[in-house]
Structures are given as structure tokens and as C-alpha cells.
Amino acid sequence: MKLKQPINRILSDALEQAGLTVETVQVSDAGKPEFGDYQYNGIMALAKQLKRNPREIAAEVAAHIPTDGMIGWVEVAGPGFINLTIDNGWIARSIDQVTGSKHLGVEPKAVPLRVVVDYSSPNMAKQMHVGHLRSTIIGDTLANLFTFLGDEVIRQNHIGDWGTQFGMLIAYLEEMGEDSSGSLSDLEQFYKNAKGRFDADPAFADKSREYVVKLQSGDVHCLHLWENFIDKSLGHCEEVYGKLGVNLTREDVRAESSYNDELADIVAALDDKGLLTLSDGAQCVFLEGDEHPFIVQKSDGGYLYATTDLAAIRHRVHTLGADRISYVVDARQAGHFRQLFAVARLAGFARPETRLEHVSFGMMLDKSGRPFKTRDGGTVKLIDLLEEAVIHAREAITSRENYSEEELERIAGIVGIGAVKYADLSIHRDSNYIFDWDKMLSFEGNTSLYLQYAYARIQSILRRYGGHIEGSVHLDTHDERALAFKLLQFEDMLLRTAAESLPHYITTYLYELASLFMKFYETCPILKEDIDETTRQSRLQLAILTAETIRQGLGLLGIGVLDRL
Q1: Does 27 lie in the same domain as 144?
Q2: I want to staple 75 with a disulfide (CB 3.0 to 4.6 A). Which of 83, 296, 302, 497 is the partner?
Q3: Per the structure, how many domains does the chain have?
């Protein structure tokens, strides 16, 4: 249910009735209950423009705001702010409408967009490591969110499956025997072994270079070896995606190699537009204000990631029909994407109205503040990290209940993977964050375990009650109102998250919601015998809607809930 949109309309009407015209009206959260639920501070700019007293203008506008519907109370505060408080009866009636709604009051988009989300993008020559974690988690969350809001989402896994190293890898695969069991069970070791052969054996190195040429020329044998290698490599990725609960499949793979036949045409199209300059033998686009050129073809005739990325944009805009393309890639690539988007627009590969965005993110650090590594300084494999998460989760929950071994394993999986994902998503994506098992598996604070516990606690209440739940919501206490009002803000929060591609808005909201429920439960008894049944039914409805909102919110993050914890 949208709250700010109707309030903005009410304010627009009040401004018009007061003889004032503004292009846009937007309220912001007031921040503290005593200042109302929302605040409009646009009067200050109007007063400066009209050279009038802002409080006088605010009073005129406030006099035209109706208080017999959604808004229950209006106050002029400070130098000219207008504070608005939502009517309690309106909140209660709105909660009744949301209860039982399939999407918790979130309305489907009137005009859905076609959104391409480019994320994860592992290199097929190596197993996925912790450096792929943030792109995979953030990208999947955004894809889930856009889908939930009604957009048509196309997930794209732009895997690295091409380049000179693949001549070496397929030559080594052939040498080891394609069907040799376990030869590709550890891609890191396989790559090291192949590189060792390449460096030590000139004959093998020559064969590797020969296989690169044959591969790029479409040689059937080399293509067969390459396809076998890619198939096995994707199997490693699928194992990680399965453990993470990420919605990426082979159908979502759009590899670098798929654009090979288009690269010459991309360069020709840039040339036709008069965008290319020959610099030291390389074909470059020089953008105004940029010190470094955007290179699309090397002096030896080879192509680069930049060329492939341009081909991908053209395909996504003109073939897939994308209205918005979100690239979930670490912040260190900001310069590349700024140039890429500029060149794509100049070349006509992206339409002026197509939204191109780099969804950047910071690094994952260890407790010492350094890049996350193994004890010997190596790269941490993602699959190993996820398995360790389950072990830590098992230790965190094992003493709380008498679980069967099977149940303990299932719960540890949900809790452990959820903890890793939530810790990542709970901070602003552009920030670096410290990876800390103790913090992320705490039952207190802004963690997935805290939210999973809140959900399980509500399920326990419902089991203990055991009866039929019906009736309307009424709000008699401050804590009931605070919880209900927060529940109604779910859609506004999701829309803001989607607009800004900032998943931490979801985690912040869910933590605040769970905290409000815990306070509500302490001050507003539900199961006590001396509670009248009308009040009990109302509070049970609030509890159910809170649980469903937590479940749905965590579901967008790809995190499961538990009925017992």
C-alpha cells in the first residue's frame, strides 16, 4: 500500500487551493512520532521565491488539508514545516485491506518495465570465490524485487568463457583425458597444473597457442573440448547457486563468447558514427573530460571486454527490449561503466530513455580490515565459505532446542546461508564490510537470525492460540499503532529500494519492524486470559501480518524463515 503518493496528492491540492503552484510535492519521514508521521518542508523554498513569511504560507496550506480521511492531524512547526499525522482509523482500515492480500498490499505496476539484471559473472577458468559473493547476492535480490513489483526481469550471467587461456586449458584437458574422473573437481588446481605445463614445456605451449587459433576458427575438436570444460565449470557454479538459494540457471547464461561474431560489426558501427580515433595502432573512443581513451580494438586486431560489453548493451536494448539494465559489479569498475554507457549512447546502442546503471559495491574484509583471504593468503573458495557458514550456524543454535539430527542440519543450512547473505545486504552496498561470524550469527541486533527468531516466535504464538482468527484491527495503544503504521510502509520502502537499487533499505525496514513487534508483544498481551476476544483477534491479525511481511521481505533477499528456532 502506497502512503506517500496519496499524501503528496493531498498536499498538491492544498497548495493549489492556497494559490500556490509547485512542480513536485514530496513528503519525508518526520523521524519522531511527536513531530507527526510525515513532514513537508517545501514551504521554505516557496517563501524565498515569494518573499513572504514561511509560517504564514504554511498555515494557509495547512488550512486546506482535510483531516477527515487519511490525515488526522496537521501542524505547522518550526520556521514553516507542515507535520502530518495519519488517522488511526484509516491505518486500522488499511491494515484490514492488506491482511489477506496476496502481495501484502503491494499494487502491481501499471506500466511494467523490462529489466535486465547482469550479475555474478564468474570466470570459467576458476572456481567461484568470495569476490563473486556480493555481485551474486545483491543482483539476485534486485532481480527478486523487480519481479515482485511487477517488472519483467531478464537475469543475465555474463560468464567469462573466452580468451587465450582457454587454449591452454583445453589442451591440458585433452592431455588429462576428458573423462578422467576428478580432473576438474578443483578448477584452481587444474588451472595451476595447466599453467605449470605451459611454462615448463615449449611443445605444450605451442600446442596451446595453436588450440587458441583453432578454437577461435571454430575447429570441431577444440570446440568440443571447450564445451566440455565450460559444462564442468558451470557445474561448480550451479553447486554454489544451489547452496546460496540464488535464482540463476543455465538459461540465464549469456557468455562472452556469444558476442564474438558481433565484435567486428560493433567497431564498424562506431567508425560509421565517426567516434573512433587511431591511437598507437589501437581503435579508441575519446570522451570529453576523460584522460584515458575507451579502447575497443587493440593494435593486433584483438578485441577487449569493452567491445563485448558494447555488444551486450546493443543486444539487451535492441533484441531483448530492455528499459533498464542493472550491472551489479564492484565499485572498482566505475570508470569503465561510465565510459561504456557514454559510448553506448553516442553509438545508438542504447536509447536515450534506457536506464543504464552500475550497481556498485565495496569489498568484503576480514576482522583486521584486509581483503578476505585464506590463512595462507590464498583466495577463499565460495563453496568452502558457505559450508563453513552452516557449521558456525549449527554451533549457534544447537543448544537452544532439542532438534533431531536431520532437523538441526536443515535449520543450520537456512540460518547459516541466511546469515552470510543478510550481513552483506544489511549495509550500504558501496561500503566495505567486516566479515564476522559472531556478529552475523547473533540473536540480537540487525541480523537474519534476529528476524528468523521473530518470525518463529510469532508462529509459536499462533500454535499456542490454536483457534480461528478473524475480525478487524483496532488500535488502542501507541505500540499497536506504531507496528501497524510500519506494516503499511512496506510498499513505499520496496519502491524506494527498487528506484535506488539499495537492498539495505529492506534489511533496515525488517529490523525496525521486528523490533517494533517485540516491543508490541511486551506491552500488548495476546494470549493472557484477561484479554477480551476482540482485542485478542486484533492483535493476532497484527502478529500474522508482521510474520508474513518478515517472510516476504526475507524471501526477496533469498533468505528462508523457520517455524521453530
Answers
A1: no
A2: 83
A3: 5
Q: How far lies 352's CA from each of 126, 336, 342, 347, 461, in Å?
A: 37, 19, 11, 11, 53
Q: Which residues contact 347 (CB under 8 A, 6 or more apart)?
A: 269, 270, 273, 275, 310
User: What b/e readout covers 316-355, taking b as 16+ CB neighbours within 10 angstroms?
Assistant: bbeeeebbbbbbbbbeeeeebbebbbbbbeebebbeeebe
Q: Is residue 94 part of a domain?
A: no
In angstroms, the CA 397 to CA 393 distance is 6
Out of 207, 227, 252, pick the residue that ends a domain.
Answer: 252
Residue 128 maps to a domain? yes
Q: Does residue 173 sit within a domain?
A: yes
Q: How far apart are CA 456 and CA 441, in angstroms?
A: 16
284: DSSP letter: E
Name the CA dihedral angle for 267, 268, 269, 272, rounded to a multiple of 10 degrees.
130
According to the model, what pLDDT value does residue 520 have?
A: 98
Beta-bridged to residue 160, according to DSSP, are 123
- Enumerate long-range contacts of 258-265, CB under 8 Å, 24 or more apart: 259/308, 259/311, 259/312, 259/315, 260/162, 260/216, 262/311, 262/314, 262/315, 263/303, 263/307, 263/308, 263/311
- Model-wide pTM > 0.90: yes
CB 143 within 8 A of CB 165: no
The number of helices, as runs of H, and strands, as runs of E, in the chain is 20, 13
Q: What are phi and psi of 337, to 5 degrees?
A: -70, -35
Bridging pattern class, strands 433-434 and 364-365: parallel
pLDDT of residue 181: 47
Rounded-to-integer distance, Cα 173 and Cα 154, Å: 33
Task: Give the integer Cα–Cα distance in Å for 551 and 517.
Answer: 14
User: Which amino acid does the sequence have at 454?
Assistant: A
- Residue 70: its H or E element: none
Residue 107, in any domain of the structure:
no
Give mean pLDDT in consecutive 10-residue pieces for the chain, a chain of 565 residues. Answer: 94 95 88 78 92 95 96 94 95 94 91 97 89 96 98 97 90 80 76 92 93 89 92 92 96 94 96 96 95 93 93 98 98 97 98 97 89 75 94 90 89 97 97 92 95 97 94 95 97 97 98 98 95 96 98 98 94
What pairs with residue 29 in β-bridges?
38
Same domain, 391 and 515: no
Q: Using CA atoms, how far apart are residues 533 and 540, in angstroms rounded to an integer? A: 10
Question: Can you give the length of the chain in residues?
Answer: 565
Structural domain containing residue 415? 382-438
Cell reading at 357: 546503471
Bridge partners of 155, per DSSP, are 117
Distances (CA, A) of 113 to 18, 153, 309, 321, 553: 37, 8, 22, 10, 22
Let me know if 473 is exposed, middle or buried by CB neighbors in 10 A (0-12, 13-18, 19+): buried
| Residue-wise DSSP of 367-396 | TTSSBP--TTS-PPBHHHHHHHHHHHHHHH
